[in-house]
């Protein structure tokens, strides 16, 4: 799980947006070698060199040259010069891969009572799972259902999803037992988030 923890920590610190197609579409298909002209100017396909030990130089299905698809990230500078990238999440350890990085995202990932997060309850299968999403353009599952969590877009690798779950399941009932007086939902969530961030920072 070392690699998975490193990945979710990276997702907690950085999330660089890339150029996409029209509204509701997924990331650009920059597979064709002429994608910069035929698909989008921000496509940057890399030609496969002669004698590459892994990638074939020519696609045997189409007979066309093979290129490695690359989509350039969105530029963040306001003037001409070297391209600077954007970071659309908070650049510090705050468990944003679970709770979100802005008010709108957090509102979609949590409930309105008890400081609880939205989860998927699976009857007869134990603990809850990440919330489901059925409308994401990058969800490629056969059922058209993917899991949602923080700024990471689905689909996520299974091990990454499992690692995220470990941070999604802080025990709210235990917190309320320790503090029996009535707390508002936001105060409960803030206290849980504080504990989760402290635990994450110590790993």
From TrEMBL:
InterPro entries (alphabetical): Haem_peroxidase_animal, Haem_peroxidase_sf, Haem_peroxidase_sf_animal
What's a BP term from Gene Ontology annotated to this protein?
Answer: response to oxidative stress
Do you know which Pfam families this protein is assigned to? Answer: An_peroxidase (PF03098)
Read off the SUPFAM superfamilies from this record: Heme-dependent peroxidases
According to the UniProt entry, its GO molecular function terms are:
heme binding; peroxidase activity
Q: Which UniProt keywords apply?
A: Oxidoreductase, Peroxidase
Please identify the protein, giving its name as recorded: Peroxidase
* Species, as recorded: Timema poppense (Walking stick)
